[in-house]
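Q: Please design a sequence for this.
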């Protein structure tokens, strides 16, 4: 009596299609469940990576700082930090000290120099570029003063009669922006010569003793900047960042307690580590993504379990005779359910394990660019194991209940009525109601997102709106297709036998056809929505930052370069332009150089077919006034320009323009302005496609004054855009998985009807139909099904994405609004895949006719 259970794994091989369906269904369910956990955790890791990228590298751990600290308290403060740091896993601290500006310092007999003495532990000298000299005890002087004033090695500065240590090295000044290692020390170590910083040089001591002796000799009572930090490796995961944060808190508490016991508790100014806010933001990003994708993940896993329930019913019907015999011989419902598990358990377990492994291995492909926490990986394994446990339990339970009702109670449950009720129930009304509820939340999402600081507030219902719209359209399409196939017996197309046979085959398999149609439409629509919204947010970040800055970088300058008195540096000449800006009449007036504007500004974001032509047009003088391109025109916009310029004569209208955005404004060519009018422009800026650091260095070398500068990387906080993108990348993943399910369902449906297709195909061939016509018939059948799913899915998905992208914009206050990216590449990809699948399925169907044996046809 135990033989059927022992032989169950081998007996399962008699129906390989059932094994494949069970394994694939389990794989997809476990893949989606595992992917949801990993996606959220990776979002937290990506947010941590983003925050560490915009945070000073010595600010990840504890930071101790004190302005105007008494020099006498520094040894005790430093000793306390060094004493407690090892207990919390930190290495040696890096101490930075910077004195007040010391005016009246004398070099070579000239007492008019202003310097600041400085020292930084460990790699401080390694992070400076030594141009002359050695590391011998003494002072390192900045190269700008040394070269300009001919101060050489060995010079001994003095201050009010106190002789300081000799100059043993000449280093390259730290200029703004400084190397990243000096980020936290910018206020003390960097000389901003672009804004005429009054300090001549920051003079670094080569060692602690030299610095202490110099400070003591001068008699300084306080230190202007005092900073203790640790250069810890950047945390790669959110859990690592949280651990680092907790250790930092503990160290700060211990140091405070130690100094309080010494009567110096007021020296510890900070209550929390600097990186705490970054950890909070990363935690919020993870939670936002998790809450957003949780409903979809639960629905996906439940659908997968329901699919395994369908597999259980199919297995019960196929093994019905054997189960009746085993029941008659005394086997109970539980044992019969165990037989199902024994037969299908291995492929289900193998598929689930493969799905969980694939979710982890492919995380870098579908997920955010961050590392998941080890605890999240463990939770993902638990979710996969739980999904498998539920699937196997459901498999055994369904078989056991059916066997109990039929074999023990003698009741055969009639499902025809239930199926008919389920088929006619208006499910699309329920999903439409959910879509409407999501739309009401989505309509307020843009205004609610501004309340997030810095991330938008999450509304899961708003995020499910696109999916429910696509599902509603898919169900409605399936219902119409069901009704059309129900009435298809009235079709008389025998003059076109390929089309008539295709219609009859579709009508004969209405349930599988509508099922594949729903899944295919939902897959393509969901994929289009997810990709459209995810890519739309990332493209919005690029567009908004480019329009706001005007190019890759914008450097505000003074009039000499704007008037042409200082030539553009050669390294920037081919990638930069100079722009003037006027205000005062309610409209921003941008004065551009038509010869260089298109190569230096972000003109690829301007919706103009021929911007060069427009610039040439406004470069021609007009006796009626100043020829302009009008931007963001409104009814209240006046044609009056700032004083000194004639009224505007509009040559063209554009909705958006670099630096102006969509605000009301005018673009004027500098070629139509007189030198006196150009001289009256108060603000000039250099727009360049070169990196900010390169542009700054080039303009600095040319002696250009730069009071302000900005780059696209620093103009906007990109994390809110990325969080929306990471959320909808899971929606795109769900669409991709459903697409795989739709393709497999189509191929399985063809394979299931293999005998039927073989018999029908053999008959029509014997009746004179050509093989080419038979192939065309199958291609028409499968092409109509796939084509309808593609057309409806693409139209619905792209439309919903286009409607949703602007409303998910986390920076609605900044023009232009988010827009749907070009959907043509996605549409072409879907069409190519659809054609390939239809061709493969048609080839399988025709091949079954050609390879069928006579005995198989007789059995059919």
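A: Design:
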């Amino acid at each position: 009596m135990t033989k059927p259970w022992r032989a169950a794994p081998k007996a399962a091989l008699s129906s390989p299609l059932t094994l494949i369906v069970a394994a694939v269904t389990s794989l997809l369910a476990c893949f989606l469940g595992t992917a949801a956990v990993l996606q959220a955790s990776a979002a937290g890791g990506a947010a941590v990576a983003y925050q560490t990228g915009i945070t000073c590298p010595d600010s990840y751990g504890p930071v101790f700082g004190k302005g105007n600290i008494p020099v006498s308290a520094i040894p005790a403060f430093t000793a306390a930090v060094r004493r407690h740091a090892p207990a919390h896993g930190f290495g040696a601290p890096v101490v930075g000290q910077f004195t007040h500006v010391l005016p009246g310092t004398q070099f070579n007999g000239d007492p008019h120099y202003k310097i600041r003495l400085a020292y930084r532990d460990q790699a401080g000298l390694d992070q400076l570029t030594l141009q002359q000299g050695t590391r011998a005890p003494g002072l390192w002087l900045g190269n700008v003063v040394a070269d300009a004033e001919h101060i050489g090695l060995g010079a001994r500065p003095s201050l009010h009669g106190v002789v300081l240590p000799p100059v043993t090295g000449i280093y390259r000044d730290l200029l703004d922006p400084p190397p990243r290692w000096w980020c936290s020390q910018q206020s003390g170590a960097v000389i901003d010569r672009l804004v005429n910083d009054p300090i001549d040089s920051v003079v670094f001591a080569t060692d602690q003793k030299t610095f202490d002796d110099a400070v003591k000799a001068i008699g300084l009572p306080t230190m202007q900047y005092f900073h203790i930090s640790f250069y810890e490796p950047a945390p790669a995961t959110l859990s690592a960042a949280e651990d680092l944060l907790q250790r930092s808190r503990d160290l700060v508490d211990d140091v405070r307690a130690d100094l309080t016991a010494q009567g110096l508790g007021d020296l510890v100014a900070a209550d929390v580590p600097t990186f705490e806010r970054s950890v909070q933001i990363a935690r919020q990003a993870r939670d936002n993504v998790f809450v957003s994708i949780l409903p979809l993940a639960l629905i996906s896993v439940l659908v997968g379990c329901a699919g395994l329930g369908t597999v259980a019913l199919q297995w019960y019907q196929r093994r019905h005779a054997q189960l009746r015999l085993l029941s008659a011989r005394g086997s109970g419902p539980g044992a019969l359910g165990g037989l199902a598990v024994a037969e299908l358990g291995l492929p289900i377990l193998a598929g689930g394990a493969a799905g969980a492994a694939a979710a982890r291995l492919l995380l870098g492909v579908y997920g955010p660019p961050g590392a998941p926490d080890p605890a999240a990986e463990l939770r993902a394994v638990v979710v996969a194991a739980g999904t498998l446990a539920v699937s196997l339990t459901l498999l055994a339970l369904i078989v056991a209940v059916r066997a109990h009702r039929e074999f023990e109670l003698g009741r055969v449950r009639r499902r025809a009525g239930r199926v008919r009720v389920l088929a006619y129930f208006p499910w699309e009304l329920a999903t439409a109601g959910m879509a409407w509820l999501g739309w009401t939340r989505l309509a307020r999402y843009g205004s609610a997102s501004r309340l997030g600081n810095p991330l938008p507030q999450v509304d899961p219902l708003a995020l499910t709106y696109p999916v429910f719209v696509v599902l509603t359209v898919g169900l409605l399409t399936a219902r119409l297709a069901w009704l059309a196939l129900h009435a298809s017996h009235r079709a008389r197309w025998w003059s076109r036998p390929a089309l008539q046979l295709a219609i009859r085959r579709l009508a004969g398999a209405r349930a599988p056809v509508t099922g594949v149609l729903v899944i295919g439409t939902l897959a393509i629509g969901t994929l289009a929505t997810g990709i459209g919204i995810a890519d739309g947010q990332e493209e919005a970040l690029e567009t908004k930052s480019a329009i706001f800055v005007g190019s890759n970088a914008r450097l505000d300058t003074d009039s000499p370069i704007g008037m042409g008195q200082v030539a553009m540096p050669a390294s920037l000449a081919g990638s930069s332009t100079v722009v003037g800006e006027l205000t005062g009449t309610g409209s921003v007036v941008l004065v551009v150089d038509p010869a260089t504007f298109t190569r230096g500004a972000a003109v690829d974001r301007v919706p103009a077919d021929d911007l060069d032509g427009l610039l040439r047009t406004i470069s021609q003088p007009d006796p009626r006034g100043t020829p302009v391109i009008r931007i963001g025109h409104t009814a209240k916009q006046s044609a009056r320009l700032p004083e000194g310029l004639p009224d505007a004569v509009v040559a063209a209208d554009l909705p958006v323009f670099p630096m102006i955005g969509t605000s009301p404004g005018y673009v004027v060519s500098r070629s139509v302005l007189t030198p006196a009018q150009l001289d009256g422009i108060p603000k000039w800026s250099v727009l360049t496609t070169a990196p900010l650091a390169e542009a700054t260095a080039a303009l600095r070398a040319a002696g250009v004054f730069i009071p302000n500068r900005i780059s696209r990387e620093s103009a906007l906080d990109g994390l809110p855009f990325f969080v929306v993108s990471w959320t909808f990348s899971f929606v795109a993943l769900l669409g991709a998985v459903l697409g795989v399910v739709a393709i497999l369902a189509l191929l399985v449906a063809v394979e299931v009807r293999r005998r039927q297709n073989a018999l029908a195909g053999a008959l029509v061939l014997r009746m004179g139909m050509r093989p080419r016509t038979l192939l065309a018939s199958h291609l028409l059948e499968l092409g109509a099904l796939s084509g309808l799913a593609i057309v409806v899915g693409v139209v619905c998905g792209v439309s919903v994405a286009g409607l949703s992208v602007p409303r998910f914009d986390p920076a609605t206050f900044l023009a232009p609004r988010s827009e749907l990216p070009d959907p043509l590449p996605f549409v072409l990809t879907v069409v190519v895949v659809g054609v390939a699948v239809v061709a493969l399925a048609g080839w399988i169907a025709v091949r079954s006719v050609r390879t069928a044996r006579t005995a198989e046809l007789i059995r059919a």
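Q: Thanks. Anything notable?
A: The two ends are 34 Å apart (CA to CA). The chain is about 55% helix and 10% strand.
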